[in-house]
Amino acid sequence: xxxxxxxxxxxxxxxxxxxxxxxxxxxxxxxxxxxxxxxxxxxxxxxxxxxxxxxxxxxxxxxxxxxxxxxxxxxxxxxxxxxxxxxxxxxxxxxxxxxxxxxxxxxxxxxxxxxxxxxxxxxxxxxxxxxxxxxxxxxxxxxxxxxxxxxxxxxxxxxxxxxxxxxxxxxxxxxxxxxxxxxxxxxxxxxxxxxxxxxxxxxxxxxxxxxxxxxxxxxxxxxxxxxxxxxxxxxxxxxxxxxxxxxxxxxxxxxxxxxxxxxxxxxxxxxxxxxxxxxxxxxxxxxxxxxxxxxxxxxxxxxxxxxxxxxxxxxxxxxxxxxxxxxxxxxxxxxxxxxxxxxxxxxxxxxxxxxxxxxxxxxxxxxxxxxxxxxxxxxxxxxxxxxxxxxxxxxxxxxxxxxxxxxxxxxxxxxxxxxxxxxxxx
Length: 426
Ligand code: KE4
Known about the structure:
By secondary structure, the chain is of the alpha/beta class. It has two domains: 4-68 and 319-424, CATH 3.90.1150.10; 70-316, CATH 3.40.640.10. It is 39% helix and 14% strand. The chain is built from 15 helices and 14 strands. β11 and β12 (355-359) form a beta hairpin. α2 runs antiparallel to α11 (303-316), α3 packs parallel to α11 and α14 packs across α15 (409-424). The chain is globular and about 60 Å long. The structure holds ligand KE4.
């Protein structure tokens, strides 16, 4: 009998490319039929066939509180009852800007947009306008959204489908993007020595989450800060995923590095479309209409989306929020490694804040090359083994996983029970 997921997928493919509005949702890397979800609550999702799953995707990061948190839903309902959109300034946008600047001291001024891609695209243009330079530096396997300049050896869906450098990006555009190896300090030194005076910016995921989870090696982020300062290049921390996830103040607080610009998304919208870019006042004042770098958006700072973001940040900054969610995430990772050991499966895992990485490799990878050594086929089998047992992981071996504040011992125990069987079946 055809499940509703299967019939919806067939219908979706009629009018939506591959049946999805974002490639990595299509299950093409892991195989099988993507689940169509109908509702969510706390740590749980229910699909079109009414089956319940423990959710470790959290909409790719935004749902740090868990789904449909009452405070967020009520804030959205109240905002929507007053207006859906003005296309004009509102007090709530000031409140969100003030919250971001308070929680991220490196951010003195911030502009709200509607996605992480808009945030990084705008930050890159701002860095180029501020420095009057064209070259940008990114790292292989890092994903910063789908702006042309950044779809060069990108991570996430681009990596998942083996087309890290997208078609449609003119060679002359890609030529301005230098791609280095994440965690390779020697390459940073050589690149800046060779063309430091032409580099507008370095954009980095301070903790990489789009080639699976890869942590920065000691000295890596420090080296970026030192070389950008010395050569007058803008250091952009893309914290769309890590912001309010790896620490309340983001990876920049955890690692004690002060970037010049920061990009945000996901959590600051609480599930609704909000992105942001911000940083040093002297740079941000180059943005139109104050300065010559143009950037705009019809729904930037949308009152309903901002209400969801504000309600989320209020809870995220509550005392012990980060500590509790970090402990839950660590217990998941420790438990999974214990189950893999019992099943004699070559597996490793790690977490930082409420992000985690699972690897069918003896030790967590520290570079893109080491990520490529992970056994992708085994991940895919494990993914489906967990899905069949009611646990929803990211449908790609090149994505990080996420725990929410709504996950507790019940969910962790159920997940480990499912993993015990899924490891045994590999
Ligand atoms: P969006 O345009 O998707 O809101 O943000 C782009 C982006 C920028 N920077 C980082 C570090 C990101 O992780 C992302 C988006 N993340 C992916 C998942 N790894 C979004 C999922 C998808 O593409 O559907």
